[in-house]
């Protein structure tokens, strides 16, 4: 397996991965999206919210604010031995908000969240959360913890994580191919008598390139073992950190699988399925109160003479 970085910025990395199949790159993609943990607000205790935004709606907005994540300083709640409902300094971070509109209407932004630990501050300070009219205020204490995207999308570290096959197309007009490569930057390169198309979308956006190699020809010449992988971060983690951590998770899972195969322990025990008993009297009851059969009988007696007239 060979990996070549095509481009890298603060929040995006694009790299070629060669010598693997679709199953492997899809496993890597799913691991990055679903299993690389990030820090996100999970619990909020309101002291005051006189804004027009209901508590639960505001909490939902705040929960999706990406926070900087330090995987060296914090652990997942299930891996912490504190057993506290709201966690401890090892598995949770505290952020507060105390803002009030005094003389005019103001906007409340993610930058108004004050973290106890600067390493868990919001990635962006300009995410709009609410508006406050004169005299309105928002005050709360929030607890953030590590979590995984498989449990809730707010913990997913990526805003984009995709891969696509590389295409190796034979060309006869080499001069036009060179002009195409010059126009499209890193979308394609020349390899011998072939044009290696790395980024199909970028390649197709160039008219000169489209005229040289039709889209159908690109699809017919896919390489089954080479892919362009693109990872864009929400800012919680750097893209290279996300990829590295995902690889570690995959290696750990494969090591566990190998160990179980060696022990011939690859089949989990399946317990008998038990059908839960349903109290039909409560099936359509309204609210959360206990169903009272005596009250129901009294109601029927009171309405025995009711004819609907």
Q: Features of this protein?
A:
309 residues; alpha+beta; Gyrase A, domain 2; RNA Polymerase Alpha Subunit, Chain A, domain 2; 12 strands
Secondary structure: elements and pairs:
Layout: E1 2-8, E2 12-18, H1 22-35, E3 38-49, H2 55-63, E4 93-100, E5 106-109, E6 114-115, E7 128-132, E8 137-147, E9 158-170, H3 174-184, E10 188-191, E11 194-197, H4 200-204, H5 207-212, H6 215-220, E12 222-233, H7 239-262, H8 293-302
Antiparallel strand pairs: 1-2, 2-12, 3-8, 4-6, 4-8, 5-7, 9-11, 9-12, 10-11
Helix pairs in contact: 1-7
Specify the biggest β-sheet.
Answer: 6 strands, antiparallel
Helix count equals 8
In whole angstroms, the N-to-C terminal distance is 82 Å
Mean pLDDT: 87
- How large is the radius of gyration? 28 Å
Looking at CATH, the homologous superfamily of the largest domain is RNA polymerase, RBP11-like subunit
- Binned strand content: 25-35%
